[in-house]
Structure formats: structure tokens, C-alpha cells
């Protein structure tokens, strides 16, 4: 226990001098200690520190109380059945007038700004998703992550930030979760503690409720971007460079089979969507996803969404079911949002049997890991095949691995483009053609680096040339750091 070292006013410390003993003065001034230098960097301040000033917090608490009160009055006074038909302006006017009445009744005076925030929040509560609504409307927010009612983080520019948005309590949070999942005919409770859903605006939604979620419900929302990032946007953002874009155009147009690999939230789906923009308009494309996120610009696109089993455990349509069916639907290309299970078998088969130019994503931290992930998925699908056979199946199916990464400074970059060139003995041989070369870190912890060719010419150069994509050999040359 450290308490014996603590200065206390109540009684002397156990080995302190007796009060009547003469007080010894130090003979010399203590030598000032030189500041200790440490090899370690100072620890970052706790992230979960709310910046809200006390006054602001009190004001917010008061508003929350009033809001709760008003919400009850609203529910008592509004004709809920008529609510669905009410236009936005009617409902706003109604809410505003009930609010005024209640405020007047209780002699509460609010300034104009507070009053308009209040009616907006009440409107969101009645029509929308309560406190989440403002974050959903905020264009700069990519992800919304709720850890129980009092803590909501958002991701902006690749960085997580704590917001001052909160739910009143767990019951409030559960009510909003329930509103979302019941709208898509699902249920979440103690016996079904987690659920996936899609919000009306297309955002991907996942929730897990107590007791599995220990400190209150956990919610993750990947916001749907209406304007998906295109190739030019990604080049402008520094996700990859012009040379890589030209290479990728050649690869997709000449129907190489591509796997985008990356960690969670690293930009896999965004990359897949951007790559698909190189597909010719004349082709028939079928897409298969758990939650439809891809937005292909082509004319001829058939979209499929797999479905988990319902509450009675029936009605499941797995990605594999969709994929099997897709093969009977005369596709030119198949795009699978994410391969994570037994559908890998059909994906590899499709890539091997004439559906060239198919694409998918997998969770892996580098291209080599990506290949191991594929091997594992095949093994877990219960296919009894010698490893060498599995590998040669993969080597002939997959032509290209594109690695997406979210780096420590929050930036998302294509860190590697790697070609699969065949088998050498029992091993799949690969060659990296482009990579992101890190060279340092700025004092603000921004990563310094550049994209470069590796000096290895593409194995598909001849194919590119024959298809009319004659890329200059110079694009593969290594680039020196500036
Ligand atoms: N290069 C980029 N620059 C800036 N933002 C990006 C970039 N790439 C992706 N994003 C944004 O990052 C978020 C995550 O991207 P995306 O959904 O593509 O990731 P993911 O790897 O598919 O995630 P998950 O593993 O959850 O499926 C999205 O909001 C997207 O708009
Ligand atoms: Mg994704």
C-alpha cells in the first residue's frame, strides 16, 4: 500500500520524527536534479477526455431533462397513428407548438438557439434515430461507434474522436436500436444479442446488446457515402499514384482476377468499387454482398444481398447460395463484396472457369497472409484436398493482390500491388510490382513516404499490350525518395 507515503494531516506518519525532537535544517541546498531523459516518448493523453466545459455540460443536462419531459408530453399529445402520414413541416410545426406550450406551462425560458436545438432533437427522436441523427447527417463522419449510452465515438479523416453526443440511458439506446432493427423485420434481445441491418440511407449497422455487451449496447455504423470515392479522388487523396492507376486500369480491363486484401476499415470496399469503374459498359456484372455497399456505374449490373437466418433460424441465403446461383445467371464478371467462408470454393472455381475479371476482398494484413487466408478458408470449408492442390488452384485463379491499409496516422493507402506468377515447388510465387515506401515520420506523426515501382516488370505486360494497354516500362522503375 502506498498510503504510508501519503502526506496526511491526521497524525504523524509511522516513522516520522516525534514532534518534540529538534527540527534539523538541511545543511546544504539540495542539488537540483537534472531532468531525467527517457528513451520513451511521453504517453498520449487519455483519448476519452471530454472537452466540454462544466458550464456547457450543465446546460446540456438541463436541456436533456427538459427534452425528456417534453418527449413524454409529445407522446401523450401526438396522434402517433397519424404521424406516418404527417409531412416534415407539419410535424415540425406540431412539435414546436407542443414544446412552446409545455415550456410556458413550466415557466422555462430558453434562448432561440436552445429552443431550435430542442425541437430538432425532439423531431429526430420522433422521426429519426435520436442522438445518432446529427452524426448521420454529418458528412465528415465515416464511422459511428457507440460504446454504451454515454460514449459515442466517430471516425473523421481516419482518426477516432469522442463526441459529446450521448443517450439518456441504456433504455434510450435500446429503444433506438430496436427502432432500426424492427424496421428491417429483425429482433434483438437477450436471446438474440447481436444483429446486422442496413439503415434507410444504406449505412451498414451492427449492434450487440447486454448482457453479451458488458457495459451497455455496442453499435457500429459504417456510413453510406452517396458519392463513392472514384479513381481520381483516390489518386488526389494520395491513396495510390497515377502509374498505379494506369496499371490497375490495364489489369481490370484485361480481365485479371483481383483480390483486394486489407484490415478492417482499411478501404477494401472503396478500392473494389473504384476498380470496378474500369469495367466495360458492355459487360454483365453480378455483385454479391452481405450489405449492399458497392455502387457500380455500369448499365448492366445485377445486385444480390445475402441474408442471415430469421428468428426461427430459417430463410438463410448465404453468400455461397448467391454465388452458386449467380453462376447460372450468365455473368461476365462476378464481384463478391467480401469472401470470408465456404464461398471461397465457388469463387476460386468461378475465377478458374471462364469468369475472368472477377473480384473480391479478404481480411489480411499483407498479400502473403491473404493467400494463407484463402488456404485456411478452403480447409475450413471441409474440402479434403492436399495443400499443394489447394495452392495450385489459388495460383491459377488469382492474378493480383491489391493491399489496402489504414496507416497509423489515419491515412488509407494502397501499400502493395502484387502479382501471383504461379507455383515454385509447393509454394505460390508472387512478385510485388508497386509499393508504398515509408521513409519517416513528421513531428506531427504524419507518415512520410512515396509510391514506387519495384523495378520488376509486370508478368502481364504482354497481355496488356495485346489488349491495347501498352504501359511504358518506365512506370515499373523504382522512384528515389525526394
Ligand atoms: N483513400 C481513402 N481516403 C479517405 N477515406 C477513405 C479512403 N478509402 C476509404 N475511405 C473511407 O474509409 C471508410 C472505410 O472504407 P471501406 O468501407 O472501404 O473499408 P473496408 O476495408 O471495406 O471496411 P470493412 O472491413 O469494415 O468492410 C469509408 O468511410 C471510406 O469512405
Ligand atoms: Mg468493406
The overall pLDDT, averaged over residues, is 86
What is the end-to-end distance? 56 Å
Question: How many β-strand stretches?
Answer: 15
State the helix count. Answer: 14
Principal-axes geometry comes out as globular
Question: Beta-sheet strand percentage?
Answer: 15-25%
Structural class: alpha/beta
Rg to the nearest angstrom?
29 Å
Please state the oligomeric state of the protein chains shown.
single chain
Bound compounds, each kind once, are: adenosine-5'-triphosphate, magnesium ion
Helicity range = 25-40%
Low-pLDDT stretches are 1-21
Q: What is the H/E string?
A: HHHHHEEEHEEEHHEHEEHEHEHHEEEEH
Q: Strand arrangement, largest sheet?
A: 9-8-10-11-7-12-13-14-15
Main sheet specs: 9 strands, mixed
Structure description:
The radius of gyration is 29 Å and the shape is globular. The protein is an alpha/beta fold and 482 residues long. Helix 3 (88-105) packs across helix 4 (112-127) and helix 11 packs across helix 13. The chain has 14 helices and 15 strands. The protein has helices at 54-77, 80-83, 88-105, 112-127, 132-137, 170-183, 231-237, 242-253, 268-276, 319-326, 343-352, 367-380, 387-397, 461-466, and strands at residues 143-147, 152-156, 159-162, 194-198, 204-208, 218-222, 258-262, 285-289, 301-305, 333-336, 359-363, 400-406, 412-424, 427-441, 447-453. A nine-stranded mixed beta sheet has the order 9-8-10-11-7-12-13-14-15, with helices on both faces. Bound molecules: adenosine-5'-triphosphate and magnesium ion. Residues 268-269 line the site of magnesium ion.
Amino acid at each position: 500500500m502506498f498510503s504510508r507515503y501519503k502526506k496526511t494531516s491526521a497524525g504523524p506518519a509511522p516513522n516520522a520524527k516525534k514532534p518534540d525532537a529538534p527540527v534539523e535544517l538541511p545543511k546544504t541546498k539540495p542539488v537540483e536534479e537534472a531532468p531525467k531523459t527517457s528513451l520513451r516518448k511521453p504517453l498520449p493523453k487519455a483519448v476519452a477526455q471530454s472537452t466540454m466545459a462544466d458550464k456547457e455540460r450543465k446546460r446540456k443536462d438541463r436541456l436533456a431533462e427538459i427534452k425528456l419531459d417534453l418527449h413524454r408530453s409529445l407522446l401523450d399529445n401526438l396522434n402517433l397513428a397519424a404521424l406516418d402520414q404527417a409531412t416534415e413541416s407539419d410535424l415540425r410545426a406540431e412539435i414546436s407548438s407542443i414544446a412552446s406550450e409545455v415550456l410556458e406551462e413550466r415557466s422555462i425560458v430558453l434562448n432561440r438557439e436552445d429552443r431550435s436545438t430542442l425541437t430538432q432533437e425532439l423531431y429526430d427522436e420522433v422521426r429519426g434515430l435520436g442522438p445518432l441523427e446529427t452524426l448521420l447527417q454529418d458528412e465528415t463522419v465515416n464511422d459511428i461507434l457507440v460504446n454504451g449510452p454515454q460514449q459515442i465515438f466517430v471516425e473523421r479523416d481516419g482518426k477516432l474522436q469522442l463526441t459529446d453526443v450521448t443517450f439518456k440511458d441504456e433504455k434510450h439506446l435500446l429503444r433506438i436500436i430496436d427502432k432500426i432493427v424492427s424496421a428491417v423485420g429483425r429482433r434483438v434481445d437477450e436471446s438474440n444479442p447481436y444483429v446486422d441491418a442496413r439503415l434507410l440511407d444504406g449505412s451498414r449497422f451492427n449492434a450487440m446488446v447486454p448482457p453479451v455487451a458488458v457495459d451497455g449496447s455496442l453499435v457500429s455504423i459504417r456510413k453510406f457515402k452517396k458519392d463513392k470515392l472514384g479513381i481520381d479522388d483516390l489518386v488526389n487523396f494520395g491513396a495510390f499514384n497515377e502509374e498505379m492507376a494506369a496499371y490497375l486500369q490495364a489489369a481490370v480491363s484485361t480481365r485479371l482476377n483481383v483480390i483486394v486484401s486489407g484490415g478492417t476499415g482499411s478501404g477494401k470496399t472503396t478500392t473494389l468499387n473504384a476498380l470496378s469503374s474500369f469495367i466495360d459498359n458492355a459487360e454483365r456484372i453480378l455483385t454479391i454482398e452481405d450489405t449492399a455497399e458497392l455502387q457500380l456505374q455500369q448499365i448492366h449490373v445485377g445486385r444480390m444481398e445475402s441474408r442471415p437466418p430469421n428468428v426461427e433460424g430459417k430463410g438463410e441465403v448465404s453468400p455461397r447460395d448467391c454465388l452458386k446461383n449467380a453462376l447460372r445467371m450468365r455473368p461476365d464478371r462476378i464481384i463478391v463484396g467480401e469472401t470470408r467462408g465456404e464461398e471461397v470454393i465457388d469463387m476460386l472455381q468461378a475465377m478458374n472457369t471462364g469468369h475472368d475479371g472477377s473480384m473480391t476482398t479478404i481480411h489480411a494484413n499483407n498479400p502473403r497472409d491473404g493467400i494463407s487466408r484463402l488456404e485456411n478458408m478452403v480447409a475450413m470449408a471441409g474440402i479434403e484436398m492436399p495443400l499443394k492442390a489447394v495452392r495450385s488452384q489459388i495460383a491459377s485463379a488469382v492474378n493480383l493482390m491489391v493491399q489496402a491499409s489504414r496507416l497509423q496516422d489515419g491515412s488509407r493507402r494502397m501499400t502493395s500491388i502484387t502479382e501471383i506468377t504461379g507455383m515454385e515447388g509447393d509454394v505460390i510465387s508472387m512478385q510485388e510490382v508497386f509499393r508504398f515506401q515509408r521513409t519517416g515520420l513528421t513531428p506531427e506523426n504524419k507518415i512520410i513516404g512515396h509510391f514506387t515501382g519495384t523495378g520488376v516488370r509486370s508478368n502481364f505486360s504482354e497481355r496488356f499490350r495485346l489488349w491495347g494497354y501498352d504501359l511504358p516500362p518506365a512506370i515499373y522503375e523504382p522512384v528515389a525518395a525526394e
